[in-house]
Amino acid sequence: MEWSSIVQLMQAGDSVSTKFYKSITGPDELSIAISAFANTIGGMVIVGLDRINLHFVGSNLTDALVNRAVDMVTPRVRTEVSVIEKSGRLIHVIRVEMGLNRPYVFGGKIYSLDESRAWSFKLIEDDAPTVVAVESIARQNMIPNEPLDRSSVDSDLLEPAQPILGLQIDPEISIKMNQRQLKTIDYLRRHSTIQNKIYRQLFGVSHKTAHIELTDLVSRGEILTRGMGRSTHYVIAPK
User: Fold this and answer.
1) Is the pLDDT reported for residue 160 higher than 70?
2) CA gyration radius for the chain?
3) Are 108 and 32 in contact (CB under 8 A)?
4) How far apart are CA 2 and CA 93, in angstroms?
5) What is the tens place of the pLDDT at every residue in 60-102?
6) What is the SS3 assignment for the chain?
7) 2 Cβ contact partners less than 8 Å away, ≥ 6 residues apart
8) How many CB atoms lie within 10 A of CB 140?
């Protein structure tokens, strides 16, 4: 992954498939993120960047810590670790694949994305479609998606970057859409709209999975949300 791609991700901010950490306090914190991504749509954990101030602080991860965090999640999650070096400091990028053997468990608990806070994860009791959160996981090092403060920015961070919308970034580093999402885009090219209910009927998934995957398509700039409440529907985004 190129440095310019990292900058683009920083400008896009935290989302349902990208999480920034200034540092990781230990393997448990990383295991929560890995298991939550595997239980939903997959994603990337990026360590060593202060996204709010666009400061390059450097990752505190070690190979041993990353391996330990991955090993503590069962069943085994497929991950890919990249290390980027710049100015004598490192950034760790951990790609987590959307799991096919869910639920993925860490410490006897199942974690998922918190749909109400795009940068956060939550603890759930089980993987039933109607499950509700019983505990929110607050992380001091998780950086919320706030407006960028450009008053004191490392010049190296801004120079190669271009503003982008959502997750429309270099395809080389984009988290791949799953087959349901690709088919949804094709569906919308032939039909005017799609709703959560139709998504569930087409693919046989839960309300929660449909919501997460449709929301991810919105964050990517592929589709747009229209309406509110029960009238919420989605249309193809103009290109």
Assistant:
1) no
2) 18
3) no
4) 11
5) 999 999 999 999 999 999 999 999 888 888 999 999 998 888 7
6) CCHHHHHHHHHHCCECCEEEECCCCCHHHHHHHHHHHHHCCCEEEEECEECCCCEECCCCCCHHHHHHHHHCEECCCCEEEEEEEECCEEEEEEEECCCCCCCCEECCEEEEECCCCCCCEEEECCCCCCCCEEEEECCCCECCCCCCCCCCCCHHHHCCCCCCCCCCCCCCCCCCCCHHHHHHHHHHHHCCCECHHHHHHHHCCCHHHHHHHHHHHHHCCCEEEECCHHHCEEEECCC
7) 170
8) 10
Nearest to 91, CA basis, from 122, 55, 116: 55
Identify the CATH number of the domain in which residue 124 sits: 3.30.950
Type of residue numbered 156? D
Please check whether residues 135 and 77 belong to one and the same domain: yes
Say what angle helices 27-39 and 63-71 make with each other, to 10 degrees. 50
Q: Judge if 183 and 65 occupy the same domain.
A: no
- pTM comes to 0.55
Number of domains in the chain: 2
Which of 124, 146, 168 is the C-terminal boundary of a domain? 146
